[in-house]
Amino acid sequence: QSPRAGLGANNEAKMFLAYHESIRILWQSNTIKQVWAKRSAINVYDSHKEYLNDIPRIASPDYKPTAKDVIIARVKTTQVAMEKYQIEGTEFEVYDVGGQRSERRKWIDCFENVTAVIFVAAISEYDQTLHEARRSNRMVESL
């Protein structure tokens, strides 16, 4: 089980189910559409729109996340997280080190016996600023 799941996640799910119809109605309002158009000012993830457009499916009692639901999900990395995989007999260790400036000092411990580095940058953040430094562009900083 993921360390990110648990009672907190269950409580959030219960709250969502209690208010999903109100959220759906708000999402369809003109006011929220206007706010959404300015989302880059407050660094709202683009993937939220996918979930908000699918509230009835997600709130259904038989909801099972699709591959797309999982791929576009975003959980802020607050520490170095490691996952192990075995693909065709080869073991892989993948480290998610987080991109926030405050997390970068933790990276050095992950570079012993490294074979490859995959660097991921969100080009959708071209018009957003860093949370910790409002004058720095998020995409430029990540590159």
Features:
single chain; 143 residues; alpha+beta; two-stranded antiparallel sheet; 2 strands
Low-confidence stretches: none
Percent range of helical residues:
25-40%
So how many helices? 6
Mean pLDDT: 80
Strands of the largest sheet, in order across it? Answer: 1-2
Main sheet: strands, sense, barrel: 2 strands, antiparallel
> N- to C-terminal separation?
33 Å
SSE ordering:
HHHHHEEH
What portion of the residues fall into strands of 2 or more residues?
Answer: 5-15%
Structural category = alpha+beta
Radius of gyration (Å): 18 Å
* Secondary structure tally: strands: 2
Shape category: globular
Q: In oligomeric terms, what are we looking at?
A: single chain
Give a description of the structure:
The protein is 36% helix and 10% strand. It is an alpha+beta fold and 143 residues long. The protein has a two-stranded antiparallel sheet with strand order 1-2. The model has no long low-confidence stretch (mean pLDDT 80).
Q: Outline of this structure?
A:
This protein is α+β, with helices and mostly antiparallel strands and 143 residues long. Helices cover 36% and strands 10% of the residues.
